[in-house]
Amino acid sequence: NAGVTQTPKFRILKIGQSMTLQCAQDMNHNYMYWYRQDPGMGLKLIYYSVGAGITDKGEVPNGYNVSRSTTEDFPLRLELAAPSQTSVYFCASSYVVHKNTEAFFGQGTRLTVV
Amino acid sequence: RKEVEQDPGPFNVPEGATVAFNCTYSNSASQSFFWYRQDCRKEPKLLMSVYSSGNEDGRFTAQLNRASQYISLLIRDSKLSDSATYLCVVNSSGTYKYIFGTGTRLKVLA
Questions:
Q1: How many other CB atoms are there within 10 angstroms of residue B94's CB atom?
Q2: Average of pLDDT values for A75-100?
Q3: Residue B28 confidence class, pLDDT cut points 50, 70, 90
Q4: Alpha carbons B92 and B96: distance in angstroms, whole number
Q5: Distance (Å, rounded) from C-alpha A22 to C-alpha A114?
Q6: Which among A81, A75, A43 is positioned nearest to A62, based on CA atoms?
Q7: Do residues A101 and A33 make contact, with C-beta atoms less than 8 angstroms apart?
Q8: Does residue B78 belong to the interface with chain A, where contact is any CB pair within 8 Å?
Q9: Contact assessment for residue A58 and residue A45, using Cβ atoms and an 8 Å cutoff
Q10: What is the C-alpha separation between A102 and B100, in angstroms, rounded?
Q11: Does the pLDDT value for residue A11 go beyond 70?
Q12: Of B32, B87, B97, which is closest to A100 when you measure between CB atoms?
């Protein structure tokens, strides 16, 4: 009963490097989300997906890309890492059939860009 | 104006106290409302959904006021284990995007 799984849990990147944050869910959820959380702040939506093959920008998409080739996976790509992307990244999913459907979160990826 | 606003706190209360948090939202078409709890360096977890008629879960009571566009969370008989950040979450109408407030920090003191 894994739920939402994120890898890696921690990562240090150098400026200009690229990486992919992995997110997988085994609950057959149709909606998936990527958020970032800076210290002492709330979660800001980066990208979301309403189903395989469909993605859309959230509040803070610049510097990131996503893809959704399967229902289960929703990777987040950083192409040219910048110090401003130092944050904790949370992936979430939900099975949206009616309102009041909750979102389930992964344990987060702590990323530091130096 | 932020779409979801909360008082960041911290609220420092003694064990056994009753504490209340409010949250305001700007989009009058918002459909769904939630309170999430987030422990330090952990992922957010659902505490409770907020229904139009208000709802209660043990020591926790949530209320929704659509006319004034705010939701509230009341915690009775606070426990040390209630110390956490409480996130107000609003689901925007039609898109199912979960919009988070910045959170309210609660510290329950022995």
A1: 8
A2: 90
A3: confident
A4: 6
A5: 21
A6: A81
A7: no
A8: no
A9: yes
A10: 13
A11: yes
A12: B32
Q: Which residues contact A8 (CB under 8 A, 6 or more apart)?
A: A21, A22, A109
| Residue B82 main-chain phi, psi, to 5 deg | -80, -10
Residue A69 and residue A53 in contact, taking contact as beta carbons nearer than 8 Å: yes
What is the residue whose two structure tokens read 């910048």?
Answer: A82
For residue B96, what are its two tokens? 């199912």
Which of chain B's residues have a Cβ under 8 Å away from the Cβ of A111? Answer: none
By Cβ distance, the residue of B44, B91, B100 closest to A99 is B91
Give the mean model confidence (pLDDT) for residues B14-30: 94
Contact A49, A74 (CB under 8 A): yes
If DSSP codes are grouped into helix, strand and coil, which group holds residue A42? coil
**B40 and chain A: CB distance < 8 Å anywhere?**
no
Two structure tokens written together for B65:
């006021």
Hey, what are B71's tokens? 């939701």
The two structure tokens encoding residue A106: 């992964």
Cβ pair B67, B83 in contact under 8 A: no
The Cα B21–Cα A47 span in angstroms is 29
Mean pLDDT of chain A: 94
Distance CA B69, CA A113 (A): 39
- Cβ atoms of B54 and B61 within 8 Å: the answer is yes
Residue A83 DSSP SS3: helix
